[in-house]
Amino acid sequence: MSDYLLRLYIVGSTLQSERAIRNLRSICNKALHNRYRLEIIDVIEHPEAAQDAHIIATPTLIKELPPPLMRIIGDMSNQEKVLVGLDLHPAEQD
Question: 75 FRET partner, CA 20 to 30 A, in 7, 10, 21, 52?
Answer without folding.
Answer: 52
